[in-house]
Design brief:
CATH class: Alpha Beta
Order of helices and strands: EHHEHEEEHEEHEHEHEEEEE
Strand order of the largest sheet: 3-4-2-1-14-13
CATH superfamily: Endonuclease/exonuclease/phosphatase
Shape: globular
CATH topology: Deoxyribonuclease I, Chain A
Number of domains: 1
Helix content: 10-25%
Length: 260
């Protein structure tokens, strides 16, 4: 087997996450690829223990604005290349890394929040369309693709505790769910739902109202793959017991040699 464990986690600030045990988490779980979102730091603000952890290469994409957005990839094998999305209005916010891992591509994304009353919905939908176009181009070129990250969208009613009450709230707006429909109808597979069709699984909880303790949450973090990878997905999980952020890590395990 040629197995790879991929983990995605919105850490809500890498410096805060380090104080809450991030490096111990990395050593304990030992993923092949760890994609982070909302890192909120420039590399020059970080120490070598984060930039050069034992056994890992790291690459960073940062927002022009300090303390905002940002994504990073920690990988046991350095990517052959890492590129931004290639669209200035999104790359200025450090939202995407397109990493060539050799046997496959990882697209690490921090999707925008559409904000109250959909104030940033147009921006978000443009971002979604640009990401899908990039992923489809990679797919058309014959590359296996994993699109992971914080999508900031709960797709179906089973993906959040209170769907009816949230139909007008960011992350569950009709336009956002409609984009997820188009995305999956194009063949992209939500790996977690390949194995877990039941409700009650979440990856984000508000800091208010003791939401995490009460498990009042949303599933907005994903690993999605192109259909050509379907038979190489071994399992997908949500590590809800991992603390350190308002999100928890989500995972997918691939066997890159497996065939139907």
């Amino acid at each position: 087997m040629n197995r790879r464990l991929l983990v995605s986690w919105n850490v809500n600030g890498i410096r805060a996450a380090v104080k809450k045990g991030f490096l111990e988490f990395l050593a304990r779980t030992s993923p092949d690829v760890l994609c982070l979102q909302e890192t909120k730091a420039w590399p020059e603000q970080l120490g070598p223990e984060i930039l050069q952890p034992a056994g890992y290469a790291t690459t960073w994409a940062c927002a022009e604005k300090k303390g905002y957005s940002g994504v990073a990839i920690f990988s046991r094998e350095a990517p052959r290349s890492v590129e931004p999305l290639g669209v200035d209005e999104f790359d200025a916010e450090g939202r995407v890394q397109v990493a060539d891992m050799g046997d496959y591509h990882v697209v690490n994304c921090y999707f925008p929040n559409s904000q109250e009353a959909g104030a940033r919905l147009d921006y978000k939908l443009r971002f979604c369309d640009a990401v899908l176009a990039r992923c489809e181009a990679l797919r058309a070129a014959g590359h296996p693709v994993v699109l992971c990250g914080d999508y900031n969208i709960a797709h179906k009613p089973i993906d959040l505790t209170n769907p009816k009450q949230n139909e007008k709230n960011p992350g569950y707006l009709p336009e956002e769910r409609a984009w997820m429909d188009r995305f999956t109808e194009a063949g992209w597979l939500d790996t977690f739902r390949m194995f877990n069709p039941e409700p009650g699984h979440y990856s984000w909880w508000s800091y208010r109202f003791q939401a995490r303790a009460r498990d009042i949450g949303w599933r907005i973090d994903y690993h999605c793959v192109n259909p050509e990878l379907r038979d190489r997905v071994l399992k997908a999980e949500i590590w809800k017991d991992v603390q350190g952020s308002d999100h928890c890590p989500v995972t997918v395990e691939l066997d890159l040699e497996r065939r139907a």
